């Protein structure tokens, strides 16, 4: 690749006509030159790589050209134009505010502003990434911007318009540059390929244009990358390979599998995608887009929204015929939700596989039993695991790692949210074990592998011997207790319970908590070992004991008879008794 000039530089537009995808902006700028209505400050906003600086340079060249043509484009022949094209014009000054954002940098610029141009009529100052100026620099600049010399035009460019202060905004004529459409980028790439004598598949150029995400500069550098990889013949295959783009064909194949309810093929295709090194999340978001593309092909009114090459478009139209609109709606929904949950999921592969099974299930009701049973297999594994954990706890009283505390603690809020009552007792209701299982998700399944086994219990017991026998006072105790409650904050009801039921000191190392019912005691006892471990460790006292006692809570005597209530009232205000006697009031 000797003498290969990077396309982005070589094919940088040098006239308004050549600018891609910003027609209304170039038209407005040309008009302002035509009617000689130039502003003294412009603000060019928009994403990177869409032509802001390019337009600023063309504008600077054009307003200094001594021989504009009939389209109000620079002649490229006069002394000024030649100087511009050789990048040695003294009428243009560029400052990259990203790297020169100090007051000093701006002062240097302001000093130059006073000097009138030697050639041509205007000195143009382009300040790129103007939002990066320090606030001191901004203020220093503001004075010049308020009253610039007549020969000066400022063009400020930014990717982040919202960071520009209003005082600047109000002094500038603002142009918003758009992302360039895939089709505009593709046709520009086609032109470049032609000029370079490179043969390129339409579909390959489409892929590059899509990948560039609206930025022409990026499109050209991707184009260069592919050329250096595959030479003068750019094909669809070497493009998707080079860019690590998942090919359309994979999606067409898997869609066929979905439609026929062939879940085995669907799972195998997904497996193959992973083996080819693609990330599962990339696959599922691509799948959602694929369904969307199929959906817009169902209606001639929306088919133009499809941004693919001609050959691929034909395939989309063909494949959309086998999908019903209702299938596509449901499939988009499933794919989109899965994409949404992907980041949170701890077993990403299983999450996507279940989504694929669900999509297989949409059209093919006859096969629904089959896939149901497959899903059930996944589910039935779960209760077994729960039972295992439970029995381990009961039989060996092992002390699990803090991780398992969290696993159990995390079950509780889910369980609770489903129940309507606020009572703590509900925690231990009969439905508990059921919802425990129901809420046991894939996430927890993955966690189970971390739960300690019976073999570890010896280890855990000896761990106790490492705790000391530090004295602790009530204050210290309360501090550690609160810390324990904090660690269960993810479970609001339990957190509330622990913070509102401070244990009573019985002996120096023994505390008790009075609870309202046996049910609550059972619940709390079920993770007493975890509680003790936390307390002993954090108090550094291995003899600390805690006991839950079922008893009447003084503050909350549950029921009082009317007579009792009356006695209470009389105690507060003896006049009530007189009042009752005088009026001869009685119950019933
Ligand atoms: Zn000229």
Features:
6 domains; binds zinc ion; Rossmann fold; alpha/beta; 28 helices; Zinc Finger, Delta Prime, domain 3; Helicase, Ruva Protein, domain 3; three-stranded mixed β-sheet; 10 strands
3D structure, described in words:
This protein is an alpha/beta fold. It folds into six domains: 155 residues, P-loop containing nucleotide triphosphate hydrolases (Rossmann fold), CATH 3.40.50; 62 residues, Orthogonal Bundle (Helicase, Ruva Protein, domain 3); 116 residues, Up-down Bundle (Zinc Finger, Delta Prime, domain 3), CATH 1.20.272; 81 residues, no CATH class; 89 residues, DnaA, N-terminal domain (GMP Synthetase, Chain A, domain 3); 31 residues, no CATH class. The protein has 28 helices and ten strands. The strands form three sheets. It has a five-stranded parallel sheet with strand order 2-3-4-1-5, covered by helices on one side. α6 links the parallel β3 and β4. α9 packs across α10, α10 packs across α11 and α14 runs antiparallel to α16. The longest helix is centred in the middle third of the chain and has 29 residues. The radius of gyration is 37 Å and the shape is extended. About 17% of the residues have low confidence. The site of zinc ion (ZN) has 9 residues, from α4.
